[in-house]
Amino acid sequence: MHPSLRHALTLTAIQCLALSPSNAAEYEFFETLPLVLSGSRLPQSLPDAPGAVTVIDADRIAATGYRDLARVLRLVPGFQLAQERGGKHWVTYHGLGMDVPQQMQVMIDGRPSPSTHFNQLPERILLQDIERIEVLRGSNSAAYGSNAFHGAVNITTRHSASETGSALRFMAGTEGISGVSARHTAGSGLHSLRITAAHEKDDGFDGLRDGTRTNALSIRSDLQLNTHDEVTLSANVGESVVEEGYAGSIFNSAKEREARNYGQALLLRWRHASSADDEWLLTTSWDRRKVKDAWQLDTTINVPFPLLGRVPALTSAVGNDLTIEYHTLELQQQTRLNSDSRLAWGTELRHTRNESAYYFNAEREVSRLERRVFANLEWRSAPAWLWNFAGLVEQVEGDSAHFAPRAFLNWQPDPNRTWRLGYSRAWRQPALFERRVDVRILDQSGTLLQWRQMPAHDLQPQRIDAAELGYLGVSADRRTTLDVRLFHERIQDLIVRNPVAGDLPAAGVLPDTLRESLRGTRWENDPGQLRLNGIEYQVRTRPLRKTEFILAHSLIDRRADDEKLRLKVAPYTASLSWLQEIGQWKSMLSVLRMGSIDAGFSYAPGFSSSVPAYTTVDWSVARNFRVRENELEIRLSGINLLGNHQELVNRLRQSQSGTHQPVNEVGRQLYLSLQTQF
């Protein structure tokens, strides 16, 4: 066992003993632990959940002062995040994000979101509309299917009847940061409505062309039909202009340009609750993403010195133009079988369609249908013993069905302590892109210069078998909570991007040295195994009523048959946050530490580069005022206060730079916000 992992286990054991029951008087420093849905689809208290769940409520989100959701998740134990440039985040649990992370299921009010890019979506949920975020740390395919291969993030927005009135927010800061948002909530009888609109702009980080301009509109309507029935409708629409590319890229391969993103999302849900223990949910949702991002390669622009005079004048139309649509229909029932047992079961259909002349050269348009049936049984076999059994059968069009099981036993010797022991198996189906991608670089005459990405029709699902031992404890005086997860995860058939051997195109057109660097790639199943053993924990303590400290820490012992895969997981992450209230002043200071990781995207043959370990500091301080009958908050926030550092490698651009100096670094940003409610 790694020495640091052994020390962490010893420290955690001491903390668990320290939280044992005592006769100390109880002070309500922490409210009752919240109910969560993400673990089993049943409303459960945190001690009853089948796995480790982190809950971030609206107050804590506001305290961070963050402008994007991805940065909030840096505070969750085990999460490994990075930012390549302004507006582009790489969000994973335990790393392994590859080019685009696809290991987690993200849901917004139960609607599956097709991307873990979070704030890169123009129609994204605005932080001020979020009631709370639930994060199940670990595999949850037994509840939500293959997209929850390595965790699930469930974002719950505020019910439109939870508040009335209006709110305005203005923001301005360094690096061209500016923004304005408005929210209005109204209700009449059994109907309530919330409308939120926002405009955001920033110029990104120093030295990069990575500015963004976003307009977003969000609507939620809730209608109580009668005592038992409620209908919820939500709609989100947005558009953004994003600066892309790097100056000086060879042959204009990463031209500095502006891309346009458009997004729309709809959700309609009917909820029928005949009693507190019996509920039906029927949900349908639709998502559409459209990217317009096209330019031309030109072999006469930024020609490397060794190739001067050796490459003919060629041009090629390239880009990231893409349209993605998702249609989902889901039926679910929650019911109590008897005094000791509850059941959640249901079925889901999801249709996905991708359209792109660039990414799917031969087919242009690809689609598939996914079918799922799921069930979770909660059984209290004795007052101190709670079982959760879950299973999901998933069949993706063209593939055989796969079964994802999970079993957890929770031992609760007293109301303040819970021990968890569980096992799960999860599958991640290859994405349409991974199986059907077909990127060909053609010159102006139609001659094939590079078959950049090739389809992989025989690509198989990747599998993870996970065992965990967990502990959740609350001190007798309720000042401190401790959440611990010990885990062993074995991953097989991991989907990776590899070069393809064979003859190269453009013989006699391009120099052989250039042709070799343009070798194509294909998504393949790695033949080896990756084993992750580790511990992660979160301690929250309030030594004083207005003072809170939150420590999140993870240590991972990484073992892999392929050393390159081992390096795609950071050996540790940590965050320490200090929240303080003094009168009308509120402050949150966070120190974040990330271990070295091979995190990046794109592909450059023979090139590898890891991001070194780094530490960064974020701080937000606010002052509340009351002007007549209106509430007013002024907040100053800053991120990356320790200065520039790299978090994510653009492999192709970094390899072209000819230097070890990072071509993309994130840096310090400061911004001031003014918010009023009336």
Automatic annotation (TrEMBL):
<dbReference type="InterPro" id="IPR039426">
    <property type="entry name" value="TonB-dep_rcpt-like"/>
</dbReference>
<dbReference type="GO" id="GO:0044718">
    <property type="term" value="P:siderophore transmembrane transport"/>
</dbReference>
<comment type="similarity">
    <text>Belongs to the TonB-dependent receptor family.</text>
</comment>
<dbReference type="Pfam" id="PF07715">
    <property type="entry name" value="Plug"/>
</dbReference>
<keyword id="KW-1134">Transmembrane beta strand</keyword>
<feature type="short sequence motif" description="TonB C-terminal box">
    <location>
        <begin position="661"/>
        <end position="678"/>
    </location>
</feature>
<dbReference type="Pfam" id="PF00593">
    <property type="entry name" value="TonB_dep_Rec_b-barrel"/>
</dbReference>
<keyword id="KW-0732">Signal</keyword>
<keyword id="KW-0472">Membrane</keyword>
<dbReference type="GO" id="GO:0015344">
    <property type="term" value="F:siderophore uptake transmembrane transporter activity"/>
</dbReference>
<feature type="domain" description="TonB-dependent receptor plug">
    <location>
        <begin position="48"/>
        <end position="152"/>
    </location>
</feature>
<dbReference type="InterPro" id="IPR036942">
    <property type="entry name" value="Beta-barrel_TonB_sf"/>
</dbReference>
<feature type="signal peptide">
    <location>
        <begin position="1"/>
        <end position="24"/>
    </location>
</feature>
<keyword id="KW-0675">Receptor</keyword>
<dbReference type="InterPro" id="IPR000531">
    <property type="entry name" value="Beta-barrel_TonB"/>
</dbReference>
<feature type="domain" description="TonB-dependent receptor-like beta-barrel">
    <location>
        <begin position="258"/>
        <end position="641"/>
    </location>
</feature>
<keyword id="KW-0998">Cell outer membrane</keyword>
<dbReference type="InterPro" id="IPR010917">
    <property type="entry name" value="TonB_rcpt_CS"/>
</dbReference>
<dbReference type="InterPro" id="IPR012910">
    <property type="entry name" value="Plug_dom"/>
</dbReference>
<dbReference type="GO" id="GO:0009279">
    <property type="term" value="C:cell outer membrane"/>
</dbReference>
<protein>
    <recommendedName>
        <fullName>TonB-denpendent receptor</fullName>
    </recommendedName>
</protein>
<dbReference type="InterPro" id="IPR037066">
    <property type="entry name" value="Plug_dom_sf"/>
</dbReference>
<keyword id="KW-0812">Transmembrane</keyword>
<keyword id="KW-0813">Transport</keyword>
<keyword id="KW-0798">TonB box</keyword>
